[in-house]
Amino acid sequence: MPDDHWRTPPPWIERLHRLTRGGIRLDPCPSPARLEDLVGAEVRLRNSLRRRWRPYAGNGLAYANPPYSQPLLGLFMQKMFAEAMDGLWLTALVPASTDVGWFHAAFSTYADQVLLPRGRVRYVKQDGSARGTPFFPSALFHFAGRRNRRSRMERFQRVFGKSGIVLPCGTDILPLLADCAPIRAVRSPQWAARVTGKGRHRKGSPGLGNGSFETPAGAA
């Protein structure tokens, strides 16, 4: 199981800053105060599970590299989903755990795009030195918010397109037909409701491991 000390390597931070002219506005998962800040966000928000992110980020970009151990990773993903529903522009670097509920919820309902990097992300240690090749793959989810959503998605494709495969989210992948016809991707109604702001996420829809989405106490 991944631990909590997987700091984002500088080349990835540089690409994230290129997504927006103003750079990264909010880091809701900052490193301890005793360590050098590698992200360079204007605001480093601590105790962020119990605070709203949108007022600190405004219309700027938030970047989250949350703790990778459980239950913290699951709690932070729930918080990101709630903030995405509120229109926050957010990117999140997380393990590509395609077998768990939060990953499916992010892909099918909440995120707009996901980057599946070519090769492994070379995370760094707490002191900023190279950590080596991790034993797990990673994914970068992009929640484009509601303002300038199309242009933000286009920029994400341009900035990260050469780093791996950028896929659109909000899709239900249908089974391959017997004749190996191309896979069809259909926008899910939950994704459409999130983008338009119409409707609410219902209890029992895709979420964490138990198949439901609930906002953690104090996360609203």
Please, how many domains?
A: 1
- Would you tell me the structural class of the helices and strands? alpha/beta
Q: Secondary-structure element sequence?
A: HEEHEHEHEEHEEEH
From the spread of the alpha carbons, the general shape counts as globular
Count the helices. How many? 6
Radius of gyration: 17 Å
Quote the distance from N terminus to C terminus: 28 Å
> What percent of residues adopt helix (DSSP H or I)?
25-40%
Question: How does this model look, in words?
Answer:
The chain has 220 residues and is α/β, with parallel strands linked by helices. It has one domain (10-196): Rossmann fold. 26% of the residues lie in helices and 18% in strands. The chain has helices at residues 10-18, 54-57, 72-85, 101-110, 149-160, 189-196, and strands at 24-27, 43-44, 61-64, 89-95, 113-117, 138-143, 164-168, 171-173, 185-187. The strands form two sheets. The chain has a seven-stranded mixed β-sheet, sandwiched between helices. The longest helix has 14 residues, at 72-85.
